[in-house]
Amino acid sequence: MSFFLEFIRSPLTVGAVAPSGPALARTVTAAVPATGSPVVVELGPGTGSFTAAIQHRLAGRGRHIAVELNPRFARDLAVRHPAVDVVHADAADLASVLAQRGLGQADAVVSGLPWAAFAEEYQRDVLSAVVAALPAHGTFTTFAYVHTRWAPPARRLLRGLRSRFDEVVIGRTVWANLPPALVYGCRRPNVVPVRPDVEEIRLVTAARH
Ligand SMILES: C[S@@+](CC[C@H](N)C(=O)[O-])C[C@H]1O[C@@H](n2cnc3c(N)ncnc32)[C@H](O)[C@@H]1O
User: Fold this and answer.
1) Cα–Cα distance, 114 to 166 (Å, whole number)
2) How many CA within 13 A on the CB side of residue 185?
3) Strands (DSSP E) along the chain, which ranges?
4) What lines the ligand 1 site, CB under 6 Å?
5) C-alpha span between 189 and 202 (Å, rounded)
6) What is the CB-side half-sphere exposure of residue 194 using CA atoms within 13 A?
7) From the CB of residue 31, how many other CB atoms can be counted at a distance below 10 Å?
8) Between the CA of residue 72 and those of 96, 101, 110, what are the distances in Å?
9) Helices (H) and strands (E) in the chain, counts
10) Cβ distance 179 to 18 under 8 Å?
11) pLDDT 10s digits, 101-144
């Protein structure tokens, strides 16, 4: 399965011309618990750069559910990683993916999604689905390409993360990735989702003080 060919077929869904490299995969998956039997959800696994790193870290523990919208990526990934529960579904439908498996929430969500290619409302829907899937101790990790960092969709993503998590840590730039990327580590999800209009009021209030 050619990542580039899928990008040509569906540039906005695939969102990158090449899969992430091992350095980014290591950094993005570092929040996957190193002990116990965690439920780990991976969103947008593509050809499996993060999948392999998560499997390596889990070393047979817990559950690994990978949610992929592209049917060809999903099919190939399931063949290459029989220990992973690969689901051909939309990340926005995470609640039903978990419910179908008798699970309410996940301990860690790792995203390979192309947030910068998502429209505002859709970005919000997927983020809400992620937060709803996380308990208080849950973690969410995602990344953004450095060259898109200041573009409106990437700034919107960061605002969305900060309004939904008490802690958002921007890691060091992973220069070894092509293109270089930044990893966002998010902890302590807000129990009550913040509505976008409320988000605006908060920003205005903060600016006044
Ligand atoms: C930028 S690629 C990243 C692939 C892989 N995680 C990596 O880092 O190499 C984005 C992936 O997200 C998938 N994707 C895009 N929108 C999605 C959605 N709404 N739900 C699930 N997967 C989605 C694409 O099909 C693609 O496989």
Assistant:
1) 23
2) 12
3) 39-43, 63-68, 85-88, 108-111, 139-145, 165-170, 181-189
4) 13-16, 19-20, 43-46, 49-50, 67-70, 73, 90-91, 112-114
5) 17
6) 18
7) 21
8) 22, 23, 21
9) 9, 7
10) no
11) 999 999 999 999 999 999 999 999 999 999 999 999 999 999 99
Rounded average pLDDT over 135-154: 94
Q: What confidence score (pLDDT) does residue 202 get? A: 41
Residue pLDDT, tens place only, 19-75 = 999 999 999 999 999 999 999 999 999 999 999 999 999 999 999 999 999 999 999
| Tokens (6 digits) for 194 | 């913040």
Asked if 14 and 6 count as a contact pair (C-beta separation under 8 A), the reply is yes
Q: What separation in angstroms does the CA of 98 have from each of 35, 83, 163, 194?
A: 22, 17, 24, 23
Closest CA to 66 of 181, 5, 57, 52: 52
Q: Is 194 exposed, middle or buried (0-12, 13-18, 19+ CB in 10 A)?
A: middle
Token pair of 102 as six digits = 């008798």
> How much distance in Å is there from the Cα of 179 to the middle of ligand 1?
16
Cα–ligand 1 centroid distance for 202 (angstroms): 31
SS3 category, 41: strand
**Contact predicate 123/154, CB 8 Å:** no
